[in-house]
Design brief:
Layout (H helix, E strand, L loop, with lengths): L29 E6 L10 H4 L2 E4 L4 E9 L4 E10 L2 E6 L5 H13 E2 L4 E2 L3 H4 L1 E8 L14 E17 L11 E7 L2 E5 L5 E2 L5 H5 L14
Antiparallel strand pairs: 1-8, 2-5, 3-4, 5-10, 6-7, 8-9, 9-10, 9-11, 11-12
């Protein structure tokens, strides 16, 4: 007789729940696409997408203000800031990746002519990081069933570049690395719905809240 004990896997919850873990997302199933990178108007060139080796996902940091009260110190958040991300590419023998990167870099600053762009909108690009489910195809839509998460980065530009070392004692492939800054990132789920949509309108319109400390949720 078969006995199903799989429902007993996992840590118990406070209200009697118990069950196995959810399927984790696998870190090697992803895709990076670029828009307006290097050549103006260039949309998702596949040659640079397939050369990606690794990429960091976007994270934000909230700066804080310190309030000094009677016997204590209280912290309130100030402006958020998106942290730079690193992305690495395999370097191909046709210089496809190197050529595109140098084109984008010269769009930001031309080292030969010693000229720079007139405005940020002229050199900044967009980038999508798609976390994939493992299927054979994935379109541009956030509602594509093979896309589990979509990170849409806007206002991107290169702030740093690294080239792997050449050495007679090593036989590995060469790589190109970039550090990127971006102005904003919007994240979508597997159904194409934007995540992080808390509406502040009720508290603003209703003039709700007047203290700096939280009320707490533990009992």
């Amino acid at each position: 007789m078969s006995v199903n004990s799989l429902g007993n896997f996992g840590v118990p919850g406070q209200n009697g729940q118990r069950g196995p873990m959810f399927q984790p997302i696998l870190s090697h199933r992803f895709r990076v696409t670029f828009y307006n990178f290097g050549n103006p108007g260039d949309t998702a060139p596949y040659d640079i997408t397939r050369a990606v080796k690794s990429v960091a996902r976007p994270t934000a940091t909230f700066s804080e203000n310190t309030l000094y009260s009677y016997n204590s110190i209280i912290y309130i958040q100030a402006r958020p800031e998106w942290e730079p991300i690193d992305i690495s590419f395999y370097e191909d023998i046709d210089n496809t990746v190197m050529r595109r990167i140098q084109q984008q870099r010269s769009k930001q600053f031309n080292f030969f002519d010693q000229t720079s762009s007139r405005a940020g909108e002229n050199y900044k690009f967009e980038m999508d990081i798609d976390v994939l489910a493992g299927g054979a195809g994935a379109g541009q839509s956030a509602q594509d069933p093979n896309v589990l998460q979509k990170y849409c980065l806007s206002g991107c530009h290169i702030t740093g570049e690294t080239l792997s070392e050449l050495s007679y004692s090593e036989t590995g492939e060469t790589e190109l690395g970039l550090t990127l800054r971006f102005d904003n990132c919007i994240i979508f789920d597997q159904d194409g719905n934007q995540m992080g949509t808390f509406d502040h309108s009720p508290e603003i319109d209703g003039k709700l809240g007047h203290q700096v400390t939280g009320i707490g949720g533990a009992t």
